[in-house]
Amino acid sequence: QKNIGILTSGGDAQGMNPCVRAVVRMAIARNCRPFFIYEGYQGLVDGGSKIKEAKWSDVSGFLALGGTMIGTARCKAFRELEGRRTSVLNLIKNGIDALVVIGGDGSLTGADRLRAEWPEHVLALEREGLISKETADKYRALMIVGMVGSIDNDLASTDMTIGACSALERICESVDAILSTAMSHQRAFVVEVMGRHCGWLALNAAISTGADYLFIPEAPPSKDDWEASMCKTLKASRDAGKRTSLVIVAEGAIDRHLNPIKAEYIKDILCTRLGYDTRVTILGHVQRGGAPAHFDRFLGTMQGAEAIEAILRANSDTPSPVIGMLENKITTQPMKEAIELTGQVALAIEAKDFERAITLRSSAFSK
Ligand code: ADP
């Protein structure tokens, strides 16, 4: 029987609650004791009432709820060695011997760090007299299982992250609404969508809403005078009878010199060069709000169940895994590799090797 802590960390994402529910209920079904850790890594650092055993009924109704009911936070203290050492002590005090982390790239990086440093923290706590030798021997390693809760769909090792589908759904609904008013007035709209350094949401929103032009970080415009080519494309659509123009821009969009491309700038171009009545809509947090779509409930549930199985299968040599989904199958892969692979996309963009960035996103990620 294991005592399994569960936390959600970093940016919230729809589908985190269904995932927490699955972890709690699967743990109980498999004779383990699940523990909520509230407010992400902050709860680990604070301990006390922020760590509480979870009961079956505590997660009733979680399938339909957006956000994360156990809270999330950006925790500065956990970035420091001292904060992580306190976290180790709090986990041991509560008898927790496995941890499930649902979060983005940053949260999983933190989780992997905690796992790697764990033995050294335990030794230090013993040296400082904060735990006995017997306890130190009992808690020689911590099994951590990660799941990617992120609307950005920006992590390697999984085709879809928990929350991305719901966010895309919300973007499509919002753009549809914008388009009906745009059409009435023959307006142009520049819509900025989230995704940080990943263009997945913007790309899929553009395909799904029939956008005329798209800007994503992985594929900046190939020419310096992209403004002229954008105007030409938009004008061709209008000449062919379209009453609206829609440009979708990812929040992390850049030109080929890595300068940001902002929605307001695009608007100015459309107003001055084409004379279009142009408005900007920055969708913002509406994208991460509201109830999870079916797919995120399903994905969170399947992955949450697999997280418990992965913990029960593990032995002391098993590296901490991240649970993903590739080609419709739930997968388990080393967390370290997933994080490294994700980091390579950012490095390729920084090096202006956009071809590699695209290849990495589309092959390693199967996207
Ligand atoms: P996300 O998980 O959505 O990418 P963040 O990047 O903000 O969000 O990370 C969430 C939290 O994870 C941070 O507030 C911090 O507590 C922890 N974290 C992130 N990166 C690291 C790191 N390199 N080392 C230790 N902890 C980290």
From TrEMBL:
Protein name (Swiss-Prot/TrEMBL) = ATP-dependent 6-phosphofructokinase
Segments spanning the bilayer are none
Boundaries of every Phosphofructokinase domain copy? 3-311
Recorded source organism is Coemansia thaxteri
The domain of life for this entry's organism is Eukaryota
Which residue ranges does the record annotate as region N-terminal catalytic PFK domain 1?
1-367
The coiled-coil segments of this chain are none
Q: Which family does it belong to?
A: Belongs to the phosphofructokinase type A (PFKA) family. ATP-dependent PFK group I subfamily. Eukaryotic two domain clade 'E' sub-subfamily. Belongs to the phosphofructokinase type A (PFKA) family. ATP-dependent PFK group I subfamily. Eukaryotic two domain clade "E" sub-subfamily.
Positions binding ATP in this chain are G11, R74, C75, G104, D105, G106, S107
Q: What does this protein do?
A: Catalyzes the phosphorylation of D-fructose 6-phosphate to fructose 1,6-bisphosphate by ATP, the first committing step of glycolysis.
Q: Which residues of the full protein are shown?
A: 182 to 548 of 993
Residues that, per the record, bind substrate: S150, I151, D152, R187, M194, G195, R196, E251, R279, H285, V286, Q287, R288
- What is annotated as the active site? D152 (proton acceptor)
For the ligand (Mg(2+)), the binding residues are: D105
Assembly, in brief, is: Homotetramer.
Tell me the compartments it is located in.
Answer: Cytoplasm
